[in-house]
Design a protein that fits this description.
It comes from Vibrio harveyi. It is found in: Cell outer membrane. This is OmpA family protein. Residues 43-160 form the OmpA-like domain. This protein is of the alpha+beta class and 168 residues long. The protein has one domain (41-165): OmpA-like domain (60s Ribosomal Protein L30, Chain: A, 2-Layer Sandwich), CATH 3.30.1330. The protein is 29% helix and 21% strand. The protein has helices spanning 2-5, 65-80, 98-118, 143-149; strands at residues 41-47, 50-55, 86-90, 126-130, 151-156, 159-165. The strands form two sheets. A four-stranded mixed β-sheet has the order 2-5-3-4. Strands 1-6 form a two-stranded antiparallel sheet. The longest helix is centred in the middle third of the chain and has 21 residues, at 98-118.
Length: 168
C-alpha cells in the first residue's frame, strides 16, 4: 500500500466518444439547360389572286345550289381575311338583245353580292359589274358554250396581311 500512498492522485479526465461516419450523400444537382423559345413575330404575307366562277340557268339571275355552296366557302375565306377585296362580274351568253343581256349580267353579279351581304360581308369590300355578252369563255354557237358563258366571275385581287409566325 505504500506504493499507492506515494502516488500523486491528482488526475482529472474527460472522455468524449465521437463516432466518425461517412460523409453525407449529396444528390448530384442536375440542371437542364433551358433554351428560350423565340417569341412569335408579326410578318407581312402576300395572298395571291384568287378566282372563281359560278354559272346560271338560261335567262336567270337566281343562284344555283352549287353556286350557293361555293359562296358559303368563300364567305369563310372573306371572314378569315377581312382585308380582302372582291370583284364580282356578271356575264351572259349572246342569246337575246344586247341591252337585255347587259341588265341580266348586272342582276347576276348583284345576286352574288346580295348573298355575300346577307352572310355579313360588308358591301364596301366588293365591286359589282355586269359585262353583258362581252368576254365569252366559250363558243356561243353551241349549247355547252352558252352554258359556260352564263356566269359570274369572282376575283379576289392579291392582297397583303399580317400573320403571327414562329421564327425558325
Amino acid at each position: 500500500d505504500d506504493v499507492l500512498d506515494d502516488m500523486d492522485a491528482n488526475f482529472f479526465g474527460i472522455g468524449v466518444n465521437y463516432k466518425f461516419a461517412a460523409a453525407p450523400v449529396v444528390a448530384a444537382v442536375v440542371t437542364e439547360e433551358v433554351v428560350a423559345e423565340p417569341e412569335p413575330v408579326m410578318m407581312t404575307k402576300t395572298h395571291k389572286e384568287e378566282y372563281g366562277t359560278g354559272t346560271f340557268e338560261f335567262d336567270s339571275a337566281k343562284l344555283t345550289d352549287s353556286v350557293s355552296e361555293r359562296l358559303d366557302n368563300f364567305v369563310n375565306f372573306l371572314n378569315e381575311y377581312p382585308q380582302a377585296q372582291v370583284e364580282i362580274t356578271g356575264y351572259t351568253d349572246s342569246s337575246g338583245p344586247a341591252a337585255y343581256n347587259q341588265k341580266l349580267s348586272e342582276r347576276r353579279a348583284q345576286s352574288v353580292a346580295d348573298y355575300l351581304i346577307a352572310a355579313g360581308i360588308d358591301a364596301d369590300r366588293f365591286t359589282v359589274t355586269g359585262m353583258g355578252e362581252e368576254n365569252p369563255v366559250a363558243d356561243n354557237s353551241t349549247h355547252e358554250g352558252r352554258e359556260k358563258n352564263r356566269r359570274v366571275e369572282v376575283v379576289v385581287p392579291e392582297f397583303q396581311y399580317e400573320e403571327l409566325v414562329q421564327p425558325e
